[in-house]
Amino acid sequence: MSNQVQLDIKELKPGFGAEVTNVDITSADDDTRTKLVETFHKHGALLLRDQNLTPRQLLDYLGLFGEPEGHTLQQYTLPDYPNIYLLSNKQENGRQIGAHNDGVGWHTDYSYKEFPVQNTMLYAVEVPPEGSDTIIADCCAAYNALTTDRKEQLDKLILHHSYKYFMENREYGRMKLSKELEAENPDVFHPLIRTHPADGRKALWISTGTVKEIVGMDNPEGLDLIDELVDFVTQDQFTYRHKWRVGDVLTWDNRCTLHTGTIYDDKKYDRLMYRMWIKGDKPF
After folding, report:
1. Which of 75, 87, 146, 202 is at 20 to 30 A from 267, Cα to Cα?
2. pTM recorded for the entire structure
3. CA angle, corner 45, sides to 241 and 263, nearest 5?
4. CA distance 262 to 210
5. Containing domain of residue 168, as a range?
6. Residues 6+ apart with CB under 8 A from 75
7. How many domains does the chain divide into?
8. Residue 56 contacts residue 84 (beta carbons within 8 Å)
9. Torsion over CA of 49, 55, 57 and 58, rounded to 10 degrees?
10. Can you give the CATH number for the domain in which 192 is found?
């Protein structure tokens, strides 16, 4: 069984994340693959470096974690692979091949859905030598650092998430939703403190951008509290900054983290990343 497999693991930062250093995805046996998934659920993020994967091999690895989730916007998916979304500043035949500067700003993916994605996976194909880092915040460590009174106060709060609000009010690329997209993405309500289904650990789950209000709290007071909590969660003591190398496969658990991309010199460097998602469960 998988408990016989020994992985070489080092934490990405103290108490969070795992880099496994002795695994080639293309040749890993079933027990090793099972152990990788167990490591992901336990540590909140999982990094494998120096991988050389075809899109098919990448999707096979993705499938170990559950059922792939589709993308709301399809224009930047990889031809013949609709579950692989391209993040890039590159152009081909005068056309942008991927979403550029997508994911800059603290958030958790698909927080505006009734069932937000379980995990996000990125595979590095082309990486700038500087910039374009991904930063991940450990929301469980942040929750554990709260006082007992603060935990009790926040545990009662519900967040109103809205895709329409996000797309029509974001600072870059504001977009008026079509009636079809609006109908496909109705507003949802999720707890501010989320419980992880694997082991019951609590997370301060305060994704930004999609949050329209805290239920029962007037704005700007409600959104000011969100900003205050985001500032708290994203302190250096709770965050891991990933500096990308070609061949990196990094997946993180959206049920207990926030993340953000960072900018780079897009006139000087090219970047190409493959992004994939796994379907998640309803937050509680």
Report:
1. 75
2. 0.93
3. 30
4. 19
5. 138-233
6. none
7. 2
8. no
9. 50
10. 3.60.130.10
